[in-house]
Amino acid sequence: MKGLSILIALLVLSLAGHGQTVSDTLGTSLKKWYDKETIYLQGGNGFVKNNMLYRGQKALKNEFAISEGGLQLYLKSKRTRNIALVISLAGSAGTIASLISGNRDNLKKFFWVSLGTGLVSSVVTMQANNQRDQAVWLRNRDAMFLIDADR
Question: In this predicted model, what pLDDT tens digit does every residue of 61-101 receive, in sequence order?
Fold first, then answer.
């Protein structure tokens, strides 16, 4: 019985060493194509593609040209981010106005307004980030569909 257990353990260990890795199952050419064609964002106006950094809105729009849905969502994320910026600036202006006025009653009101606009701005910025991340995902997904076109 002990010998049978050892034999089964050796068989399992030898089979485990022959498992497939991700690169084996995807294929080397497919993995190289994926590394070459997909992007990830770097900073506000930059992205990395094929281990090269590209900057500028024009380059980003060119990359998103292969994905209409990704481009539309990316542009929507930029609009959402601009809305968050306006809300944040309004809160800052309110804070500055309350400090300059010197009126203690205004100070309390503008403090709460400033705090509220800061929270709203943060939530809207998070929404913009989610939209941007989804836009990149859609663009990369659509880039993968181009594999058939290149073959």
Answer: 889 989 999 999 999 999 999 999 999 998 888 778 777 87
Q: The pTM is what?
A: 0.72
Which amino acid is located at 78 in the chain? K
Letter string b/e over residues 35-47, b meaning 16 or more CB atoms within 10 A of that residue's CB: eebbbeeeeeeeb
- 132-141 confidence digits (pLDDT tens): 999 999 999 9
Distance CA 51, CA 98 (A): 49
Instruction: Report the residue count for the chain.
Output: 151
First vs last Cα of the chain: how many Å apart?
Answer: 56
Task: Tell me the C-alpha distance between 134 and 115, whole Å.
Answer: 29
Domain spans of the chain?
Answer: 14-150
